[in-house]
Write a structure and sequence with these properties.
The complex is a heterodimer of chains A (about 230) and B (about 325).
Chain A (H helix, E strand, L loop, with lengths): L1 E10 L2 E11 L4 E5 L6 H8 L7 E6 L2 E2 L5 H7 L1 E4 L11 H8 L5 H14 L1 H4 L11 H13 L5 E5 L7 H16 L3 E5 L3 H7 L2 E6 L2 E7 H5 L2 H7 L3
Chain B lengths: L1 H32 L6 H17 L4 H24 L7 H25 L6 E2 L9 E4 L2 E4 H23 L1 H11 L1 H6 L4 H27 L1 E2 L5 H14 L4 H21 L2 H4 L7 H10 L8 H15 L15
Antiparallel strand pairs in B: 1-4, 2-3
Helix pairs in contact in B: 1-5, 1-6, 1-8, 1-9, 1-10, 2-3, 2-4, 2-8, 3-8, 5-6, 5-8, 6-8, 9-10, 10-13
The chains are: A alpha/beta (about 230), B mainly alpha (about 325).
């Protein structure tokens, strides 16, 4: 479904990605793990068109999207839920969701808002509250809900459990598992490697802009290097 | 006294509408791009010229107004595309300097056109009949342009508010102002939203230009300076970048400006015997009839006090979805 081949991305002369190749098949949940500054967010931004690769190819369902603009990419069916949630703090929950569906016909957006509030009843109770006044967990639900509003076929999640209390982390992973059971394809970046590898089908390890390991999640979980660096055993 | 007071209030409301039409455009652009578009006054000036030349050419008023709005919107769009888009996201100083340059280009371009049309630098504005003369309400006579200016300003601003809070494009402007990359990620076409904001602010400036020129009766290529400055002050008073703040600030500024004029010489306007001679003399000393000529000085002192004590503006601290 998604295929990155030899992708390079640079910020000025900082070479953040140095030729990475990643594949996400339809219906798969693929985790991308790595330490701080490894280039995980950069990878996701390149996929969603916020950053332009200096070399390499990004294909979505056989179509080259490495030069496409973000709105086109969203329209094709990729939705990127960014690191740090980034909800529109001065807009209400309803307005945040409404804008999540900006690429969709307005008539369908209303029923989609109901689907999202069924998934996250907490949001349904807070439709007129400003995004910026939600708790961290509620903001993360809103960010995921907003990303789902474009009816993506590929959902990209950048550290959805970041800064959340354990209960809320559990809740977020329940949602991710639900979405997976519903057949949604996902690419997940997580610091919470335990959880990520529990939910994922396959995983990639990114270090300093290079993919150093890849494989089925349960194999990687028993890999000594992964155990040592990311699982703290 | 009553008559005088009513006249002053209408003046304040009319000036407030004009400033609001301008200030909303400044706030809209600033909210999204962090750009203080000082060329905004020159956009308004160009609108006045397009209106003047359309009317000189004998176009009926509605056609002249449509021509004016369309022409000004095109200039706003061209300005965004040619001058501002290439430096979007750059240092704020670079954007500010670019806006001064754009203003210079518009002024000199207008000067060039008036030369080519063999017109003097300052020309009489062919004020349309509906905007000239006075309306009499009982004993009160008020310049008609002030009444229409106030009324049309309120209607247009109400429409803009509805647009910004009720339509997806309007909400996209808020979202882009709130978090540009996040707005991009949900699929908002940022280039389109920015262009729409420039088109809207140019359209508002064009209405202000028509009202301003009809009030002044004269136009020249440099007339945009004072209105853009006033609009900037209005936006600062209201809390810079906030749309509703800009509107509130604009009407506050309108009233602030008429206060010196209204109070100046108030002692001489009071009916004889209304106050004791001592109070009459006191009023005459505190509010001399020349107070009106210190209007701008008083406004700027107020601005400085605002910046010192309430830098976030009248509505600052109150966060609602009005900072695109
Ligand atoms: N806007 C930027 N300008 C310059 N360098 C950047 C920029 N954004 C990221 N980088 C650099 O690129 C590298 C990769 O950053 P990236 O944000 O992709 O890391 P990450 O793997 O997501 O890390 P984290 O787990 O901390 O979120 C880092 O060295 C970072 O300093
Ligand atoms: Mg990151």
């Amino acid at each position: 479904m998604l295929e990155l081949t030899g992708v390079h991305v640079a910020y000025g002369n900082i070479r953040a990605l140095q030729g990475i190749s990643i594949r996400v098949g339809a219906g798969e949940l693929v985790a991308l793990i790595g330490s701080n500054g490894a280039g995980k967010s950069t990878t996701l931004k390149a996929i969603s068109g916020l950053l332009r690769p200096s070399a390499g190819r990004i294909e979505f369902e056989g179509r080259d999207i490495s030069r496409a603009s973000t709105d086109v990419i969203v329209g094709l069916g990729i939705s990127h839920c960014p690191e740090g949630r980034r909800v529109f703090g001065r807009l209400t929950v309803r307005e945040n969701l409404l804008l999540g569906g900006i690429t969709r016909p307005i008539a369908e957006v209303r029923s989609d808002i109901e689907r999202v509030t069924t998934l996250f009843p907490r949001l349904g109770e807070r439709m007129t509250q400003l995004g910026g006044t939600l708790s961290g967990g509620e903001q993360q639900m809103l960010a995921i809900g907003r990303a789902l509003m474009s009816r993506p076929r590929l959902l990209i999640l950048d550290e959805p459990s970041l800064g959340l209390a354990p209960m809320m982390v559990e809740r977020i992973f329940e949602v991710i598992d639900d979405l997976k059971r519903g057949g949604l394809t996902m690419l997940l970046v997580e610091q919470n490697v335990h959880h990520a590898l529990d939910s994922a089908d396959r995983a990639y390890v990114l270090e300093s802009g290079l993919i150093t390991l890849e494989g089925p999640a349960d194999v990687l979980r028993r890999n000594p290097q992964v155990e040592h660096s990311y699982l703290g055993r | 006294m009553d008559v005088y007071l009513i006249q002053q209030i209408v003046n304040a409301l009319s000036a407030g509408s004009l400033y609001a039409l301008m200030a909303v455009g400044l706030a809209l652009i600033f909210g999204i791009l962090r750009l203080i578009n000082f060329a905004h006054g020159d956009v308004m000036m160009v609108a006045a010229y397009i209106a003047a030349f359309s009317l000189f050419a004998g176009l009926p008023l509605p056609v002249a107004i449509v021509t004016m709005i369309a022409g000004t919107v095109l200039i706003g769009l061209a300005m965004e595309r040619i001058a501002y888009r290439p430096i979007r996201g750059g240092p704020e100083v670079a954007m500010l300097l670019t806006s001064f340059a754009v203003g210079q280009i518009l002024q000199n371009g207008t000067l060039l056109v008036t030369r080519l049309a063999s017109q003097p630098v300052q020309i009489a504005f062919p004020t349309p009949d509906v905007l000239s003369g006075v309306v009499a309400i009982g004993a009160v006579t008020i310049p008609r342009v002030n009444v229409i200016g106030f009324g049309s300003g309120v209607i247009i601003l109400a429409g803009v508010m509805l647009f910004l809070t009720r339509t997806r494009t309007g909400l996209s402007m808020h979202a882009a102002a709130d978090d540009l990359p996040a707005a991009q990620l949900v699929g908002i076409r940022v280039n389109w939203v920015v262009a729409a904001a420039f088109a809207l602010s140019a359209a508002l400036a064009s209405v202000a230009g028509l009202l301003y020129a009809s009030q002044a009766g004269q136009i020249n290529p440099f007339l945009g300076f004072s209105p853009v400055l006033k609009a900037f002050i209005a936006a600062v008073i209201g809390g810079f970048g906030s749309i509703s703040g800009a509107v509130v600030g604009a009407y506050a500024l309108g009233f602030l400006e008429v206060i010196p004029t209204a109070l100046g010489g108030i002692a001489d306007i009071l009916p004889p015997g209304a106050v004791s001679p001592e109070i009459h003399d006191l009023l005459a000393t505190v509010f001399p009839s020349a107070l009106g000529s210190y209007r701008d000085a008083i406004v700027f002192v107020f601005l400085i006090l605002m910046l010192l004590f309430r830098p976030n503006g009248i509505l600052g601290g109150r966060a609602r979805e009005d900072t695109p």
